[in-house]
Write a structure and sequence with these properties.
With 196 residues, this protein is mostly helical. 66% of the residues lie in helices and 2% in strands. It contains eight helices and two strands. Strand 1 and strand 2 form a beta hairpin. Helix 4 crosses helix 5, helix 4 crosses helix 6 and helix 7 packs across helix 8. The radius of gyration is 17 Å and the shape is globular.
């Protein structure tokens, strides 16, 4: 598989949120605003890319029988780093994301990529896979966050666009995330069918 394909796969074709439908717990919980979505995306991107790098680097010395616990330790190390950095430098964002930052440890995107890709491929391929999956997750999560914030609160990145009284409050609640994901999936399917 080419390096470009390693990077490109996660953006649209294997987008973790809109195609594979994995890692939806934080998507539903934190995508009620664009800034929360961006913050969570940054944390997931850091953890995914770094854990892919380390897993790929040590894959030949990790005994097959204990690989999953080792993956969890690697992932939790990077989650702890991102958790502390976010707590120190962006306390408001840290408070808004709450428990969902530490829960990145059990996010199936991260563990799934470590198991399915990084453990079976060289370092550069694994880093590019992590970056591509991260970019796909970011595009999906921020798109959902922007749509939900605009329709549900009348603002984007905290900037008021129209009177919040005219907004559809359901869009900033969890059902709004499901509705938005459904429309984005339908839009991607329509584009894909048009191209074929």
């Amino acid at each position: 598989m080419s390096l470009w394909k390693n990077f490109n796969q996660g953006i649209l074709k294997e987008n973790p949120v809109l195609r594979l439908m994995i890692g939806l717990c934080p998507v539903l919980a934190v995508s009620n605003s664009a800034i929360n979505a961006l913050g969570m995306s940054a944390a997931v991107a850091f953890v995914l890319t770094c854990s892919n790098l380390v897993v790929a680097a040590i894959r030949r010395i990790v005994p097959d029988e204990i690989r999953i616990p080792i993956f969890i330790i690697i992932i939790s190390t990077f989650v702890t780093i991102s958790d502390y950095v976010m707590q120190a430098f962006t306390p408001d964002l840290y408070k808004a994301l709450g428990v969902f930052v530490p829960l990145i440890v059990v996010n199936c995107i991260i563990l799934g990529r470590a198991e399915a890709f990084a453990y079976r491929n060289p370092v550069l391929n694994s880093v590019l896979d992590g970056l591509g999956m991260s970019l796909g997750f970011t595009v999906a999560l921020v798109s959902i966050g922007v749509i939900r914030e605009v329709l549900g609160a009348g603002s984007v990145f905290g900037i008021t666009l129209f009177n919040p009284a005219a907004a559809a409050t359901i869009m900033i609640l969890p059902p709004g995330a499901f509705i938005t994901i459904g429309f984005l999936m339908a839009f991607l399917n329509k584009l894909e069918n048009k191209v074929q």
